[in-house]
Amino acid sequence: MLKFKTVTDEKGCRELWEYFSPKQILWDLWDFRFCFHADNFRFNFIVGLDGKNETGLLPLVFESKGKYYTYFGEEFPEQNRFLLKDKKNIGLFLEQCPMGTSIPYISSEEAKYYELKPDEKRYSLGLAKYGNSFENYLKSFTKKHRKNLNYDLKKLKDAGYASEHNSLKDFERLVELNKLKFGAESNYSSESFVSGMSKLIDSALRMGALDIISIKIGSKVEAVGLGVFYNKVYYVLSSGRNVEIKNLGKLLIVEEIKSAIANKCSEVDFLSTEANWKELWNMDSEQMYKFEK
Predict the structure, then answer these.
(1) What is the pLDDT of residue 69?
(2) Distance between CA 102 and CA 94 in Å, rounded?
(3) Whole-angstrom distance, CA of residue 277 vs CA of residue 70
(4) Which of 48, 77, 192, 283 could disulfide-pair with 55, CB 3.0 to 4.6 Å?
(5) What is the pTM of this model?
């Protein structure tokens, strides 16, 4: 019979994470989740014990302002998983969750073992099925769609755009453009989110996995995309663009896909937000799930 204990110190929690995490995807890495662990969060990792053996980990944190529990890393990281040696025990671990627990963006793999509520869908582009070729991918579009896209991109080319990689100062421009587009609804209206993304950039830079794409027209940066690649997956994490210039968003998507191919990635993960345009780009979708108590 499993017993449970709660670990609340950072050092102990990190050791547990490093032991149980499969490190398969970007969000399995401690550094990329710890970026979003602000002062208002306290560790509340639930560990399962079979005798003296540690059998699994449910890495919760407590948000002291809103008075709720959630998965380590808060709401930006996706594909949350239950780090158990035997997934059949998911229900037993979830029973240990305090009231007021909310875990979003749970990986579809976990739903095979426990009945969870549907959440948003995650969108991705499998490059391998197109032979890692952008031209082959374009052939999946209808003739009209392909023609329109090429026409829109040509107009930007005629305007003399130029792209640049990893100009770190352009993160400030990404923040500015994102706030101009979304206003108060922008994640970047939150200082803690800006701080978290800045830390994420630092972590990716240290790992040699950062890909900030800046698009200039003339001397001005008009679009910025933030990407990170890990284990042959290119993660499109954020972007900002001048909405007054038509089709910059399309150009940025094309540049990100081409960059993923150049970095020998087999998949581009476009996360779960703003789903409508992703359907138009023939992306694969995966149902994610949530747990609430």
Answers:
(1) 96
(2) 11
(3) 29
(4) 48
(5) 0.94
